[in-house]
Amino acid sequence: MMATPGRGAVISVKDITKTYLVGEVQVRALRGVTLDVQSGEFICVTGASGSGKSTLMHILGCLDRPTSGEYLLDGQDVSKMSKDQLAEVRNKKIGFVFQGFNLLSRTSALDNVELPLLYQGGKSLRTAERRARAMQSLTAVGLRDRFDHHPNQLSGGQQQRVAIARALVTEPAILLADEPTGNLDTRTSIEVMGIFQKLNIERGLTVLVITHEMEIAEYGTRIIRCRDGQIVSDHLVERRRLADDELRALPKEATVA
Amino acid sequence: MSPLMTFRIATKALGRNKMRTGLTMLGMIIGVSAVISLVAMGNGAQSVIEDQIRGAGTNMITVNAGNISQGGVRGGSGSSSTLTVDDANAIREQVPGVQFLAAGVQSQAQVVAGNQNWFTRIQGTDVDLPDIRSWALKTGAFFSAQDVSGAAKVAVLGKTVSDTLFGADADPVGQVIRIRNQPFKVIGVMAAKGQSGMGPDMDDQILAPYTTIMKKLLGVTFIRDITVSAASAGDTTDVADRIAVILRTRHKIAVGEDDDFTVRTAEEIADIRTAAMGTMTTLLAGIAGVSLIVGGIGIMNIMLVSVTERTREIGLRLAIGAKGRDVLLQFLVEALTLSLIGGGIGIALGFGLAEGMSRWMSWPTKVPANAVAMAFGFAAATGVFFGFYPAQKASRLDPIEALRFE
What we know:
Chain A is α/β, with parallel strands linked by helices and 257 residues long. Chain A has helices at residues 53-60, 83-93, 109-118, 127-140, 156-168, 186-203, 214-217, 243-249; strands at residues 9-22, 25-38, 42-46, 68-73, 76-77, 94-97, 174-178, 206-210, 222-227, 230-236.
C-alpha cells in the first residue's frame, strides 16, 4: 500500500502557516506544516477540534490561501494564486466530499453529479458528453440505476455516494473528504470508506480524508495527526482495515438500497 | 462559463421553487399589466374624445356665460348670467361668417309619461341645432321658428328618453309628456348619437325651444350658452375672435379687463379635453408605475432571502469551481428571468384587461406601442437593478463560511 514511486508528489506543502484575526486577537491556526502526498496515497488526517486539521484541509483544497509558506499542487504553485485562479484549480484538480453531502435539493442525482462540469471554463463540454461522464461517475459509486432520483429519495449513504460521484466527475488529481462519515451510521460509514478504498486501490486515486475517528482513519494507508496547528505524528498504517471484508463479516441488514 | 449555461443554471434554480418563483413574478405581472391597461384606458378615452369633438364639426364654436379663467369666486363656465338672447341675436346679425346659431339653456327634471318617469337633462335650444351638430331625426320633426318665438311647449326626445318612457321602437310623436307638471307635446325623436366616452350622453336628453325653457320652466332672462357654426372650417378662429369682440363691446368690458364669457372652438375644446385626459393617463401610469417598483422590491426581497437560504448551495458552487462572476451572473439572470417572464405575462394580461374593458364595460381602450416597450424595458431594468445587490452579495460569499452555514 505504499505510494507509487516515481509519480511524484501530488501535494507538496512546505512550512505553511495560517493566522486569522478574530477581533483583536491573532489566532495561529497552522504553525508551520510540511507535508508531501504522493500520488496513489490514501491519507487520513486526524486530530481534535481546534487542532488545525480543518484549516489544513481548506488550504489543501484551495478554498483558502496560507499566510506564509509554499504549496505545490500537482506541480503548480497555488499559494499565491488569485481567487478566480483558485476556483479553476478547485474545479480541475480537486474533488470535494463534505460531511453534509451538500447536494442540490429537488435536483436529480445526475444533474448534481454534472454540476462541476458546468463550471469548466475554456472548451465547454457538449451536453451529451457531460451526461455520459456524470453517468460513468454514478456507475463508479454503484448508483447508476438511481440517476433520476432526487436527494430526498435517497438514503444518507446513497447521498454521500452521489457526492463522491460529483467529486470524481472532473477526474481530479486528489479527492478531499471532510468528515465524510460524520453524518452516517457505522455500516454506511464502512460502505462509504469502502468506496474510497476501491477508488484508491483500483484507480490509484489519491484520497485525503479528514476525520476525528481513529477507526475511520485506519482505512487509509497513512495517518497524520494534528495538534495545535502542527503535525505531531505521521506514520503508515501497518494493518489497514479493508471495508469490503468487514462488510461481509457484518450481519446482513435489510438494505434500504 | 457560457451565457447559455448561466441561463440554464438560473432557470433550473427557479424551477426548484416554483411556488416562490410564481409569487415573485406576480408582483411584476400586476405592475406591468396595471401600467398597460391603465395607459390603454387613458389613451382610448383620449382618442374617443378627440374623434367625437372633431367629428361633430371643426367649424363649431361655443360661447359660454362666465369665464373659468377669471379670478375671484366663479362657479365655472355656464353658471353666470352674463349672456342674453340679445347677445345671440347680435352675433347672428353682426358677425360675418356665422352660418348657424343656437342659444342654449339647460335644466334637469323628472319627466313623466303615462306611468313611466325618467330623470333627465332638458336642453333648451334653437332650430339650428340639428344643422350645427349634423344630427338627424329618427321620427317626427324638429321644432320650428314659430315654436321658438311662441315658446311652444313642444319637445324632441333623445333616443334613450324615448325608449325609457315609451318603450323601444314605439313612436311617441303626438304623445304628451309632463316636465315639472307642465304638459309638453312630443313632436320628434332624435336619431341615436351614441354614448360618448366622456361627457354627457347625447341620447339621454330632451330638446325644447330655449324660449320655452327660459319662460315656462326656469323663469330666467339669460341664456347659458350659444352654439355657433362658422360657414367655413378655415374661418372658425376668425369668427370666434369676432364674436369675442362683439360681446366685449356689448358687455362694455374695458380694455385690459377679463371677458365675462368664454369662446371656444371645437378644436380648442378637443385640445383641452385631451390634455386633461393626458394628465389623467400620466397620473394613472404613475400610480401603476409605483406597483412596478413594489414588484421590483419584491424581487429583491425574494432574491435576498434566496441568497441566505441557498448559502450552502453557493458555498458548494464556489467550492467545485464556480467563480464569483459565475454566481453573480446566475443570481442576476434569475432576477432578470423573473422580471422578464413576469413582464411578458403582465403585458399579455394588460392587453387582456384592456380588451375586456372595451368589450364588457364599453370603455374604449388603445394600447400604445411604446407603453409595451416601456413596461418591458422597465421590467428588465427592475430585474437588473433590484437583482444586482443580492447577486453581488452571493458572489462575495466566502466558500468556507458558506459551506459551514446552517
